[in-house]
Design goal:
The complex is a heterodimer of chains A (282) and B (735).
Chain A (H helix, E strand, L loop, with lengths): L34 H4 L16 E5 L6 H12 L4 E4 L11 E4 L19 H12 L2 E5 L1 H8 L6 E3 L7 E9 L15 E8 L3 E3 L2 H9 L3 E6 L18 E5 L5 E4 L17 H11 L1
Parallel strand pairs in A: 1-2, 1-3, 3-4, 4-11
Antiparallel strand pairs in A: 5-8, 6-7, 6-9, 9-10, 10-11
Helix pairs in contact in A: 2-6
Chain B lengths: L10 H6 L4 H11 L5 H10 L2 H4 L4 H4 L9 E3 L6 E6 L2 E9 L1 H6 L1 H17 L4 E11 L7 H19 L3 E8 L8 E11 L14 E6 L9 H4 L20 H15 L4 E6 L4 H13 L2 E5 L12 H6 L5 E6 L4 H10 L3 E9 L3 E6 L2 E7 H6 L27 H9 L8 H4 L10 E3 L6 E4 L6 E7 L2 H6 L1 H18 L3 E10 L6 H20 L4 E7 L3 E2 L2 E2 L3 E10 L16 E5 L15 H6 L12 H16 L5 E4 L4 H13 L3 E3 L6 H5 L6 E5 L4 H8 L3 E7 L7 E4 L2 E4 H16 L1
Parallel strand pairs in B: 4-5, 9-12, 17-18, 24-27
Antiparallel strand pairs in B: 1-2, 2-3, 3-6, 4-6, 7-10, 7-11, 8-10, 9-11, 12-13, 14-15, 15-16, 16-21, 17-21, 19-20, 22-25, 22-26, 23-25, 24-26, 27-28
Helix pairs in contact in B: 7-8, 7-10, 8-10, 10-13, 15-25, 18-19, 18-21
Classes of the chains: A alpha/beta (282), B alpha+beta (735).
Chain lengths: 282, 735
């Protein structure tokens, strides 16, 4: 575990959130008690009456998982997403979901996601997110959302400085989200990663806030669900693999759920994420 | 404009351009005058070994290149084969050896970029990359630096363009210390009715430049790749190109978008010798002339000269001939993707290449005579003297419990995970067989069919006997595809050899071509594309001859694909393809057992009986396609026991073998044409009855968890120990 401290030494910060006053969000109080943050989004709709989910995938120059996630979205929702070009600030109306896909937007020159965060399309994404439209950022998409300020923290170079592509295990840390309702709390799932800059960092107050507000969606773990340094593929702070926005409608994660959502590819642990969204957004 | 002070053509300048006195004489005859420096530069690259194949052409012509499913054989940017359902596979392998040794990251990265362009130039979307790498001794001071740079370069480029790197091979040998090999292969898929070629047509049609701007990088790369290395090679670092994978990704998307319209007449990527060879080849193939206004070429820096523009090997550039009047359609697409676009000339009926620079003619060359007069040599050659057959009785018997872990952790067998985990091997969402098996398999997008692919060569066999080694390289590629359940269709060859001016080296090339041709013919596995890399020598020491074969096949039903992993306990392990006469003796000459366990690198390599190979392979493929085997793995490096151990590790499941007092030769001999399969226990009797002497039941799968082991004759080696040896070696070397 990370050897950080906010004045109080926590024996195990992985399982016991920081309760130091210094780490409390400015509003104070435990947000998990606030119904705004704990409402179950995943009410069961009647599929026959449910309107189809309308989704869009933002295509930056250098995006390369746009097609992959479009395939997963179409398989789940039965409807192909709109492929939205980066230069257009006006996103389609009535969107239920925006996906910022993986890849190397603008070559990841300067800093991963830094230039994409200032693309015209991101103005539209930001507005939509403010209206409560669900936003999912995968891999480079997570980096873009952090750079755009839609999620806190940043993603820096992997601990061992190498690109890494492999299946990792993740522990589902919260199911109180529109993204994870179809997983069981604490469930261990297998999802691939493929990145050079997936090492999540944040300052201590942010870390504590994420923990206190139940905004850590996934942590890297071993097959048994234990978070260990060996099971942390990139050195991420507190083994964090994915986080939620304050409103819980924006999720960013480094692993690629769209890469294991098809039995032909060797697994389907990514599927419940898309199924959760379908149910929550229908 | 820039004032050019043309240097005088001196014998020294001619020599620096790699032209012999005799070749220069031919230049004078063609032109009827002295060339200027730009023209000399053009002759130099067009007649370089790299571009003209002057030493190899005679022998390459002997390779079989046709079959009913071959749509385009050698001679285009890449080969094209019919894979059914109105689709084609477009593929090629190419070396980037010299640049990668000098500057491993950029050398390897631009190698990937170049081969990708060769494939999408033909209209195909690249769907997979593979790479065949050869490094020096693991403990050589440069090896770690080279591995880490090459792997990072391949990954850095392939990961960014979003094409999965799914397979390949790696060998280590001290004879690559001064000259590593980096062979990159790309496979793409294109609709059969939308293949694009480089043959120009239509006098007056616009010649268009797209992609990156031209800079001063890579000038004389082709000439460098056509000379031996020496101690000063470090100084050639500036001739290594610099890649920009982001621009390549944009170029792929822009080209494919444009190819969906009907405006392209011909297209050619600017690879070796850049603008010179691309414009030359397009015009030459069309029997036309071309006039280029060089000052319109997008330039990265000021003060560039026509000479530099024509010889630059700046990456991520394409040359196209468009339908007249369609420039705006194309320009809109390239502008949308943020790429340069410039009409730099037009086709003419003069048969000449005319280059102008701010209104002044700076070169005027006849195209056909220059192409036709390209030197072609019938270099003297000597066959490799035959090696003695190593008698198994003369080889020490090391207990299998010691030899097996040693082999599993030896440089040529150990796991390559450290490498392929740095490659995105899953992007595009169609990788159904990841690295680590016999062949990589990529699903044909939107279907339930797959493309299987592999790269293979066993250089130690080729050196001992070029003909047999050449056969073996093809046979192993065919076998690896077969072991996945694929129908092998065609190959690309990447011929890496030393200095062809030495008769023994030329003899290796001639022998390997003969072996390749025999095997390709016997296995209906034609060569559709390829590349030759000669002069792989440093300080006069040649690399082991390395004719790398990239094979592609089709799996018609992915439910009938085989993998190497053991699937369930209690299944029968059967070896298929043993010849009854050698079952107990085993072939140890040039085996890894002899080299890694006994420290001897000698003897004749195992013979490849092509008729036997074909019969056994067709039989095994039939078993896979009818769903009768649950796992399949070919027997290659390290022999039978290594094959079984690899299957056990892949499935995380042990095995009990029932071989009676086996000799090292029987366990580790590298006899060819063999496969290990597993079948359900109740099916084994029927299978054995059916296959007769071709099949032998050698044990049962079983055992999982920490105690899983390979057990034989009362002794055992745990999978944990085997895994530690197998997975630990490369990370141990890389630190």
């Amino acid at each position: 575990m990370s050897k950080i401290s906010c004045g109080v030494i926590h024996r195990d910060m992985l399982t016991r959130p920081c309760s130091s006053r210094a780490c409390q969000p400015s509003q104070g109080g435990d947000r998990r008690a606030d119904p705004r943050y704990t409402r179950r989004h995943s009410v069961s709709p009647d599929p026959s009456r449910a309107p189809p989910v309308k989704s869009a995938v933002i295509v930056f120059p250098g995006s390369n998982c746009d097609r992959d996630v479009a395939v997963s979205l179409e398989q789940t929702t039965g409807r192909p997403p709109v492929m939205h070009w980066h230069g257009d600030p006006d996103l389609p109306a009535d969107l239920d979901l925006i996906v910022v896909p993986g890849g190397f937007s603008y070559g990841d020159y300067l800093r991963c996601g830094a230039m994409a965060a200032h693309a015209a399309a991101m103005t539209g994404v930001r507005k939509a997110a403010e209206r409560g439209v669900a936003v999912l950022g995968i891999c480079n998409g997570f980096q873009v959302l952090c750079e755009a300020g839609l999620l806190p923290g940043a993603l820096i170079r992997n601990r061992d400085l190498r690109f890494v592509c492999k299946d990792v295990h993740l522990r589902v840390e919260t199911t109180d989200t529109i993204f994870t309702g179809h997983y069981a709390p604490g469930q261990v799932i297998r999802i691939p990663i493929a990145h050079h800059d997936g090492n999540y960092v944040a300052d201590l107050p942010t870390q504590c806030m994420l923990e206190d507000e139940d905004r850590i969606a996934f942590r890297y773990c071993d097959p048994g669900g234990k978070t260990t340094d060996a099971a942390n593929p990139n050195g991420s702070l507190d083994h964090i693999a994915g986080i939620l926005s304050e409103e819980r409608t924006v999720l960013g994660l480094m692993p690629h759920p769209e890469r294991l959502a098809d039995p032909r590819l060797g697994g389907t642990d990514g599927r419940p994420l898309f199924a959760s969204l379908l149910e929550a957004l229908s | 404009m820039t004032e050019i002070t043309p240097p005088k053509i001196t014998p020294q300048i001619i020599a620096e351009h790699g032209l012999t006195a005799e070749e220069y004489q031919r230049v004078l005859e063609i032109l009827g005058r002295d060339p200027n420096i730009t023209e000399l530069g053009i002759f130099s690259v067009m007649w370089s070994e790299h571009c003209s194949y002057k030493s190899s052409k005679k022998w390459l012509k002997t390779l079989p290149t046709s079959a009913p499913w071959v749509i385009q054989g050698p001679g285009e940017n890449a080969g094209v084969i019919d894979i059914g359902d109105g689709l084609t596979a477009v593929f090629k392998m190419e070396s980037h050896n010299h640049p990668s040794f000098i500057e491993p990251y950029q050398g390897a990265a631009t190698g990937v970029g170049g081969i990708l362009r060769d494939v999408f130039t033909m209209g195909a979307r690249p769907v997979a990359n593979l790479n065949a790498l050869r490094f020096g001794a693991p403990d050589h001071p440069r090896t770690r630096h080279l591995i880490s740079g090459v792997v990072a370069g391949i990954g850095g480029y392939g990961n960014c363009v979003g094409v999965p790197t799914v397979g390949g091979e790696v060998n280590f040998h001290p004879d690559y210390n001064g000259n590593i090999l980096v062979n990159a292969m790309t496979v793409g898929i294109a609709p059969a009715d939308r293949i694009f070629y480089s043959k120009a047509s239509g006098v007056g049609n616009p010649v268009v430049y797209v992609g990156s701007k031209t800079g001063r990088d890579g000038i004389h790369g082709a000439t460098m790749a056509s000379a031996e290395f020496n101690a000063d090679s470090e100084e050639k670092r500036p001739t290594v190109q610099v890649g920009d994978s982001f621009t390549e990704k944009l170029l792929i998307e822009a080209c494919l978008e444009l190819m969906a319209t009907d405006v392209i007449v011909a297209i050619q990527d600017m690879g070796a010798a850049g603008l010179t060879s691309s414009s030359f080849e397009m015009a030459s193939k069309g029997g036309l002339g071309v006039e280029l206004t060089l000052d319109r070429v997008p330039m990265r820096e000021e003060g560039m000269t026509p000479y530099e523009l024509m010889l630059s090997e700046s990456q991520e550039r394409m040359l196209m001939v468009l339908e007249p009047g369609k420039e705006p359609v194309a320009e809109a697409i390239f502008r949308k993707w943020g790429l340069d676009f410039a009409v730099i000339g037009h086709l003419t009926d003069t048969g000449r290449m005319v280059l102008t620079w701010y209104g002044e003619t700076v070169a005027d060359l006849p195209i056909d005579p220059l192409a036709e007069a390209a030197p072609e040599y019938d270099r003297p050659w000597e066959p490799t003297p035959p090696q003695a057959v190593v008698a198994a009785a003369d080889v020490p018997e090391v207990p299998w419990t010691e030899a097996l872990p040693a082999l599993m952790g030896s440089p040529d067998v150990a796991s390559r995970r450290w490498i392929w985990e740095q490659y995105d091997h899953m992007v595009m969402g169609d990788t159904v067989q990841r690295p680590g098996g016999d062949a990589a398999v990529v699903r044909i997008h939107g279907s339930e069919r797959g493309l299987a692919m592999t790269t293979d060569c066993t250089p130690r066999y080729v050196r001992a006997d070029p003909v047999m080694g050449g056969r073996q390289a093809v046979a192993e590629a065919w076998r690896n595809l077969t072991a996945a359940g694929a129908r092998p269709l065609a190959v690309t060859d990447n011929m890496n050899f030393g200095n062809p001016e030495k008769p023994l080296i030329m003899g290796q090339f001639v022998g390997a071509c003969q072996g390749l041709a025999e095997a390709c013919r016997a296995l209906d596995f034609p060569v559709v594309s390829g590349n030759v890399s000669l002069y792989n020598e440093t300080e006069g020491r040649a690399i082991p001859p390395t004719p790398t074969i990239g094979g592609v096949g089709v799996i018609d039903d992915l439910d009938r694909m085989a993998t190497v992993a053991f699937k369930a306990p209690g299944e029968a392990i059967v070896v298929i393809g043993e010849r009854p006469d050698t079952r107990e003796s085993g072939w140890l000459g040039q085996s890894l057992y002899l080299r890694e366990v006994c420290g001897r690198e000698e003897g004749a390599p195992p013979p490849v009986d092509l008729e036997h190979e074909r019969r056994v392979g067709d039989l095994v493929r039939g078993l896979i396609q009818t769903g009768r085997v649950t796992a399949c793995h070919d027997v290659s490096d390290g022999g039978l026991l290594v094959a079984v151990a690899e299957m056990a590790l892949a499935g995380d499941m042990g095995a009990t073998l029932t071989l009676a007092a086996p000799s090292a030769a029987a366990l580790f001999g590298e006899d060819q044409g063999r496969y290990v399969v597993t079948v359900p226990a109740d099916a084994v009797t029927g299978l054995l009855a059916e296959l007769g002497a071709l099949a032998r039941h050698i044990g049962e799968t079983g055992g999982t968890g920490p105690d899983a082991a390979i057990t034989m004759g009362g002794a055992e080696v745990t999978l944990a120990d085997l895994r530690a040896a197998h997975e630990g070696w490369l990370p141990g070397v890389m630190g």
